[in-house]
Amino acid sequence: MIVFGLIAERDVNFFLNIAKQIEAKSEEEVSFISFYEPGNKKINKAGFKVYNLYDYVQRKSNDIDFSDYLIDNIKNFTLHEMVTFNSSEKKVINKYKQYLPAMNNIIKDLIHSAENKKVTIFQELGGFAAPLSLYFCSIKNKVDHYFFEPSFFKGRLLFVKNDYLSFQVSDNNLSDFNIEDKLKELIGNKTTVIPKKDVHHFKYNVFKKIATFKNVKVIFTKIFNKYIFLQKEEYNHIFNHIFRNLNYMFNSYFIKKFYSKKIDNKNFNIYFPLHVPLDYALTIRTPQYFDQLSLIEQILTLSNKNNFKL
């Protein structure tokens, strides 16, 4: 049995298309675990079973032992949700206390439903409580779990099996590797990848990337789903999201004067590209580098001694 974890509308459309192809080409059974109630009806209509996380969640937080889910310190997995939804650490931990037992019951139901057939779970990489709860419960029940994430290289998708950390770079065959040649090749072939959902982030005009008809439509859809149809989903912190993006817009306007497109070639320059601030790579995999401005300050303390510009 193949199981897909869903957290947003794009997941529903993407995985449903794959599920239909699997159904047409094999006898493999496909099911879904949903953290996105607005998409469940569409999945059921297509003839697939969907396990709704919120049907399994108890209103009262359970007093659980996180070590039962192979979690040494739950605080290591709270930062992503805290900074994205402006939530407290305590609130996120309580959410895990609700989600982990619920997800564990779903996994047990899946194993029972599979009738001794192998169960494999796929979901997009995510640092929120829901996808991580699905990951931890899969590992607890010895069910193979795959996070998939886009690769830096075109046409490549990484499947991380039974782990939440990134692949380790091997030292093998790097003796003849020339980084300058590789960069020239990337510039010439334009083989780097920007996920479709993130393309708008690279527009120079911040107002144009926020004030779009698509965003307005999404906001009103979420308001209707949450307050009119009473449907649950993880991305339902609507007004927090609006205020954060407005803050981005105002900040972008006021700090423009500090930017320059000119680089003094007479000096030795170090290029330090800032990472996407709320990305899984920082919040879950390397939280010690989450404060990028602090890291920049550390680098700049060396500038007077070594005479370089950052």
Shape: globular
Helix content percent band: 40-55%
Name the strands of the widest sheet in spatial order. Answer: 3-2-1-4-5-6
Number of helices: 13
Q: Structural class, please? A: alpha/beta
Elements, N to C (H/E)? EHEHEHHHEHEEHHHHEHHHE
Strand segment tally: 8
Low-pLDDT residue intervals, each spanning 5 or more residues: none
Q: From the alpha-carbon coordinates, what is the Rg to the nearest angstrom?
A: 22 Å
The largest pleated sheet is described as: 6 strands, mixed
* Average residue pLDDT: 88
Protein described:
The mean pLDDT is 88. This protein is 45% helix and 11% strand. It is α/β, with parallel strands linked by helices and 310 residues long. The protein has helices at 9-25, 40-45, 53-56, 79-85, 89-114, 129-140, 179-189, 206-210, 213-228, 238-254, 280-285, 292-300, 303-306, and strands spanning 2-6, 30-34, 49-52, 120-124, 144-150, 157-161, 268-269, 308-309. The strands form 2 sheets. The chain has a 6-stranded mixed beta sheet, sandwiched between helices. The protein contains 13 helices and 8 strands. α1 (9-25) links the parallel β1 and β2. The N and C termini lie far apart (52 Å).
Keyphrases for this structure?
alpha/beta; globular
